[in-house]
Amino acid sequence: MSASDLTSFIFLKDTPKEIEQKINKYAFSGGCDTKEEHKKHGGNTDVDISYQYLTFFMEDDECLAEIEKNYKSRKLLTGQLKKSLLVCFKSLLGIIRQGVLR
């Protein structure tokens, strides 16, 4: 997810496990350093890379608004937000790969 680190790019040929590892390792979080701090202050969607990707790739605006509300209000943790992105990416890549294989 950084231009300076070629191992951080997500490629169409990446396995779901590789995508998960890259997102968990490289996607900058808008959450706090600890779970306790996050539960006090909530997350910052303005700087959270996983959330920013969701604004482009998630088609369900109501679901995105719910994720934003829950992240800011401390109900959703960073790991849970990244899982939402993973579900979105896996679905999107599945559609792309089906089209390529035809």
Quick recap of the structure?
The protein has about 100 residues and is mainly alpha-helical.
Question: What's the SSE blueprint?
Answer:
Layout lengths: L15 H11 L8 H7 L7 H9 L3 H12 L5 H24 L1
Description:
Helix 1 runs antiparallel to helix 5 and helix 3 packs across helix 5. This protein has helices at 16-26, 35-41, 49-57, 61-72, 78-101. The protein has one domain (23-101): Tyrosyl-Transfer RNA Synthetase (Orthogonal Bundle), CATH 1.10.240. The chain is globular and about 50 Å long. 62% of the residues lie in helices and 0% in strands. The protein is mainly alpha-helical and 102 residues long.
What proportion of the residues form beta strands (DSSP E)?
under 5%
Biggest sheet, in brief?
none
CATH class: Mainly Alpha
Low-confidence stretches: none
CATH topology: Tyrosyl-Transfer RNA Synthetase
H-E order: HHHHH
Assign a percent range to the helix content: 55-70%
Structural class given helices, strands, pairing? Answer: mainly alpha
Question: What does the overall shape look like?
Answer: globular
Domains, number:
1
- What is the average of the pLDDT values? 87
CATH second-level architecture = Orthogonal Bundle
Annotation field: number of helices: 5
Rg from C-alpha positions?
14 Å
The separation of the N and C termini measures 29 Å
EC number: 6.1.1.2
Family: Belongs to the class-I aminoacyl-tRNA synthetase family.
Keywords: Aminoacyl-tRNA synthetase, ATP-binding, Ligase, Nucleotide-binding, Protein biosynthesis
InterPro entries: aa-tRNA-synth_Ic
